[in-house]
Design brief:
By secondary structure, the protein is of the alpha+beta class. It folds into 2 domains: 387 residues, Distorted Sandwich (Beta-galactosidase, Chain A, domain 5); 112 residues, Serine Threonine Protein Phosphatase 5, Tetratricopeptide repeat (Alpha Horseshoe), CATH 1.25.40. The protein is built from 18 helices and 28 strands. The strands form 6 sheets. A 9-stranded antiparallel sheet has the order 16-22-23-27-13-12-11-10-28, with helices on one face. Strands 9-15-25-24-21-17-18 form a 7-stranded antiparallel sheet, with no helix packed on it. Helix 12 runs antiparallel to helix 13 and helix 16 crosses helix 18.
């Protein structure tokens, strides 16, 4: 068998695709803490650098449920004699499956269901496979969005899958090439990040690899220390794997969810592996640009087990091994103006002596490192890094991403490229094409999808004649971190016309919770049928301690809206604040299922304990990451 590439359909039980909302994400990420013991000056700089002040131009993807049916997803399959790799271009280019053909073993956690949950920057996220994360700390904005994908060929005829996108917050061009040369025991993935801007931009990358977990799974890497953090403690450098009397390299025996960023010494080969009781499993390695490695585990407590079932169904334990540009996921690095960073990763089945793998830490990492050198020597990765420069031009379009890169090309901000055919702008981009052609952004309600970029801001600074253009001018100023200037634009927009869009934006910028509540209450009156706005209004009222107003608003909602999990949770929270715990107990007894429960959120278990003191939290309400 020679190397092959073909398209197909993945049949899976899953929900409908998450739907993007209308409300842009106006808050950003807080800079990471300075860290605790053992954090050096380089890491402190990176921890303080690059957190975005908003997540513009993106909107939330919080509209989904947990009602699943059989679905068919387009996929692209690479195969050779040893491996079969299945990619999902429509879901962020995720590597969904990697099968070792001689043994028939699935090397990744191949999720049996397609179930979004609220773990990504925009909300919707999927567990399983290998997720590619670009941009800023967190699961990236395109994790549930389509990427462009094309077929091309290496000089020796090996087919190559290229997936690519324009990430609009950082304004970085991503290109990923994946190929399986004939006879190769590893899947090769070459990544390029290009900053077309005349200014440096903060950048973040982590390849997030889900693998099966049981009590005998051991995670290995070339380090004797790690930077540790969990949901209750700061980032601290600690010995690894022995910590507090437990061997943390066996994540299936660890009670609490936690991150362990391996502190790999300079000069050591970059790799991480998850091996089973027989000493076999997945290994990931890369050229040196991809510096960091991480172990994440959910923990064996009730909350951790619940999260895994919530994401993948019963009996599907998994952990994550990851690889990133920085030493930790809390850091951003400056990608200089006009520069391109690239590296090559390899994924394959590692087999080592099980007695050594489960022996001392020194024995285990030495055995795995030796086995890795046999599987894929460093020279092979260096050759692959060079070989990627010689790939030909695309010969077949396999899938289409969004039209935003094509719009930026029309605006003169991205050069047209035969290597990255971004196609044509679509319906979402048409208002901005009108601005390019006529100098005026057409008015629409709901507003046009947001954009970011200095060139768009210049155009609206020069000509914003109506509420709609002024609203977008406010968003562009806010994206640049200029909150006061944004506030002025939103107020001018309201002077032209009172809209829920500008009222909501002003509410999120208001320093006083009471002022924010007033603005959001008016916004709701103008758009009472917009559920994502209703949820935000209730959050704002509760933050301002206006529980009676929140309850009155909920009681006036249509029954279908009131039955939504987020709104039922808001009702129970407000009832508890109002002293009506009987109502809370009734709601909990009837059932509150919040389909987009946020990672780390403790609202349901806190509410249960408040009205059932001393009673254990039922598993369906236990999402605690640090206890339970």
């Amino acid at each position: 068998m020679t190397s092959s590439l073909h398209t197909g359909l993945l049949r899976i039980e899953g929900t409908a695709d998450p739907v993007a909302g209308l409300l842009p994400i106006l808050h950003g990420l807080s800079p990471s803490t300075a860290g605790g013991a053992g954090v050096d000056e380089e890491m402190r700089r990176n921890l303080a650098y690059g957190a975005p002040s908003s997540l513009l131009p993106y909107t939330r993807q919080g509209d989904y449920d947990r009602v699943r049916a059989e679905r068919e997803l387009p996929c692209v399959v690479l195969a050779n004699e040893i491996l079969t790799a299945t990619f999902l271009p429509s879901l962020g280019g995720r590597l969904w499956s990697l099968v070792h053909r001689p043994s028939g073993r699935e090397l990744l956690h191949r999720n049996p269901v397609l179930q979004p949950a609220n773990l990504a920057l925009r909300d919707a996220w999927l567990a399983g496979g290998v997720e590619w994360n670009l941009g800023m700390t967190g699961h990236w904005p395109l994790t549930c969005e389509p990427l462009h994908a094309v077929r091309l060929n290496a000089p020796d005829g090996t087919p190559v899958l290229r997936m690519y996108a324009f990430e609009r917050l950082r304004r970085i061009v991503l290109r990923m090439d994946a190929w399986l040369p004939s006879g190769s025991p590893v899947l090769l993935v070459h990544v390029r990040l290009h900053n077309p801007s005349p200014q440096p931009t903060p950048v973040y990358w982590w390849s997030n690899i889900a693998v099966p977990e049981d009590a005998d799974t051991r995670v290995l890497g070339p380090a004797g220390h790690a930077f540790h953090c969990d949901y209750v403690s700061d980032l601290t450098r600690v010995p690894f794997p022995q910590l507090d009397g437990a061997d943390r390299s066996y994540p299936g025996r660890v009670a609490r969810a936690a991150d362990y960023f391996l502190d790999i010494p300079d000069g050591e080969r970059r790799w991480i592996a998850a091996l089973d009781r027989d000493g076999t499993g997945l290994v990931q390695t890369s050229t040196d640009r991809l510096r960091g490695r991480k172990l994440f585990c959910w923990g064996t407590a009730t909350g951790g087990r619940h999260w895994q079932e919530w994401l993948s169904g019963p009996g599907t334990g998994y952990l994550e091994i990851q690889a990133g540009l920085a030493r930790t996921q809390l850091e951003h690095l400056p990608l200089p103006a006009g520069e391109t960073w690239s590296w090559t990763e390899a994924y394959g089945r590692l087999e080592a002596d099980p007695a050594a793998v489960h022996g001392s830490w020194e024995q285990a990492r030495a055995a795995a490192g030796t086995a890795l050198d046999r599987l894929v020597p460093p020279s092979a990765l260096a050759e692959a890094l060079t070989a990627a420069d010689g790939f030909g031009e695309p010969v077949e379009q396999l899938s289409d991403g969004s039209g935003w890169a094509a719009l930026e090309t029309e605006a003169g901000e991205l050069p047209a490229s035969r290597q990255l055919p971004f196609g044509a702008p679509g319906a979402e981009q048409q208002p901005w094409r009108r601005l390019l052609a006529t100098g005026t952004l057409p008015v629409s309600d709901p507003p046009a999808a947001p954009v970011t970029g200095a060139h768009w801001r210049r155009r609206l600074e020069d000509h914003a004649p109506d509420w709609h253009a002024l609203y977008h001018l406010g968003l562009l100023r806010l994206a640049d971190g200029e909150a006061d200037a944004a506030r002025q634009a939103f107020k001018r927009s309201l002077g032209e016309r009172r809209t829920c869009w500008a009222l909501r934006a002003l509410a999120q910028l208001a320093p006083d919770p009471q002022e924010a509540a007033d603005l959001m209450a008016e916004a709701h009156q103008l758009r009472p049928g917009l559920r994502e706005l209703t949820i935000e209004v209730l959050d704002t009222l509760l933050a301002a301690d206006r529980v009676r107003t929140a309850l009155a608003l909920i009681e006036a909602l249509p029954a279908a809206t009131r039955a939504h999990g987020r709104i039922r949770l808001a009702e129970a929270t407000a009832a508890h604040a109002a002293g009506d715990d009987d109502r809370v107990r009734r709601l909990l007894a009837e059932g509150i299922r919040v389909d987009n429960m946020r990672e780390g959120e403790v609202s349901l278990d806190t509410l249960w304990l408040a009205v059932h003191p001393g009673e254990p939290v039922p598993p369906q309400y236990d999402f605690r990451m640090s206890a339970g």
